[in-house]
Amino acid sequence: MFLLDTDPQHGDERVGALRERLGTLGDSLVVVGGPDLWQVHVHVADAGAAVERAIEAGRPHQIRITHLGGSQAESAPAQPGHRTPSTGLVACAAGPGLSDLFESTGAVVVAGGPGRRPSTAAILAAIHRTQATEVAVLPNDADTLSVARIAAASARSEGIRVTVVPTRAQVQGLAAAAVHDPDRRFDDDVVSMSAAAGAARDGAVTVAVRNGLTSAGECRIGDALGVLDGDFVVIGSGLETVAIDVLHRLLASGGELVTIVVGAGGHDSLARTVAAHARGLGRGLEVNVVDGGQPRYPLLIGVE
């Protein structure tokens, strides 16, 4: 059971789609509420898949799982071969520093990110390398999400239980991986990672490489662009000003932890400036600066 926050303008539509998807996963489905807050109850064999569908509809919270005897996940026999009954994690990383961060949490890493979508075969191979019977996948990029789901479906046909946590940004993946616990029940681990990812808001700064029209207006080559949750929201002449603007937009909804991921190309000074600004806001924020090494984006910014 969980509560679901939705956009009141599109809540009915998204919850209607959620009802259909949950109906294919289990039974005893009850959805009540509206227009922006819903309560959902459902019996499913794969709680992780249910949470994944909920994240597509809005922001699930107060997630409570009750394990019922006789579920398919608990009664399925072990698969033949050399796999051990453990929980594995696969993460897509956009740079060498991010790869190191994900590997430190126990993840098998696949190289890929914005503009460099990994192949289905690469993600499937990473699932196999975990040597686990239950595997969570963090795509960490909107374009990689569909590829990860295809790879997961292929792995399931081989008897491996796989759930894709729908992380659409590297900082969401970092938040999810930080709470990963291979010794926890798989469903509980997926729910914890999904909740952490859902609570992480993501931003970034980049530089326009061509003239064009963005969701924030017209930009020219060399303009600094600010990104919030995947959309361009600000255009400016300097990365520092735009990065601080993005930071303030992320903090407008609250937050306690700021993570700044430094991209390739030597942007340490920019990161230090933004970090100092965050610490100077007087909000008691915890601020972490890490080396990501990602191309295209001098800074990624996450707020939890």
From TrEMBL:
InterPro entries: DegV_domain_contain, FakA-like_C, FakA-like_M. Pfam families: FakA-like_C, FakA-like_M. It comes from Kineosporia babensis. It comes from the Bacteria. Residues 1-304 form the Fatty acid kinase subunit A-like C-terminal domain. This is Fatty acid kinase subunit A-like C-terminal domain-containing protein.
